[in-house]
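Lab channel / #folding
Pinned by the channel admin:
"Please post every new chain as: sequence first, then the C-alpha cells as a reply. Keep commentary short and put observations after the output so the thread stays searchable."

First post following the new format, from NK:
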Amino acid sequence: MTLKLITYNIWHGKYLEEVIAFLQQEKPDVVCLQELGTKGRAFKVNDTNMLENLQEALDMEAVYAPMFEKQEENGIWDLGLAILSKRPIEKTEMVQYAGGFKRFGVDEIWRYRWPSAILLGVIRGILIITTHLTVTREAKVTPAQLASAKVVKEFIGNYPDLIFCGDMNTLPGSETYTVLADGLTDLTDHQAQTLHPTIHPVGKLGYHVDYVFTKGKKLKHISTRIPIIDASDHLPVVVELATRV
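Reply from TO:
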C-alpha cells in the first residue's frame, strides 16, 4: 500500500482558500499542519475555525493540539497543530512544551517565546508525529530551541516505526537538527528551500527548515516534492511512501 503525506506550515491560515485548493488537488492520505487555529485567523480575531473549514473541504478526520491562546482587544485567537486523515485516527496524544525564554537570551519579540506542542496520531497502524519547534531569529540555534528538541526526541522515545514531520525552525547540520535527526531517516532534499522565496521575510536566503523523518522497516520512501505555491510563507513538503502495515 502507499501513503501520501503532506506537512505544511500554513501561516495562521492567511491564505486558507489557497491551502485548501492545493490539498484538494493533491488528495493526500494524511496532512500534518502547523500554525492553524480554531479561533481567528492570520493574527485577526474573528469567527473563522480553520480546522472545521479544512475538515469539511477535504472530508478528512482531524485531531488538533493547541500551542497557545492569545488575548487581543477584540477577543481571543489560538494557534496549534493538526493531523488530518482520510482513514480513522486510531489513537492520539498531545504534549505541550515550552518555547524560548528570556533567561536563555531569546529575543524579546513574543513570537520567539511561543510555547509549542507535539501531536501524535496512529493511522493504519502507522505512528505519525508532528510539531512546530521553538522559533528563533533566522533559524539560529538557541539553548531554548535545543532544549525543546530534546523534549521532542524524548517523547518519540523508542517507537520502532514512525513518521515525524513539521516545521523544525532549524537548518540542516545544526546542533538542533542533529538532535532531531538522530536515529531517523530524513526524506527531504536539503538543497531545496522550504521557506517561500518571496513571501517569507527571509525567503531569499533559501532556508530549509521543514522536514519529514521516518524510522523503521515498514515504511519505504518513494518520492519527495517541495512545490512552490503562493499559499503560505512556507512551502509544503509532499512525501509518498510504500507501507507494509
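NK: The CA atoms of residues 2 and 64 lie 25 Å apart.
TO: also worth noting, The mean pLDDT is 91.
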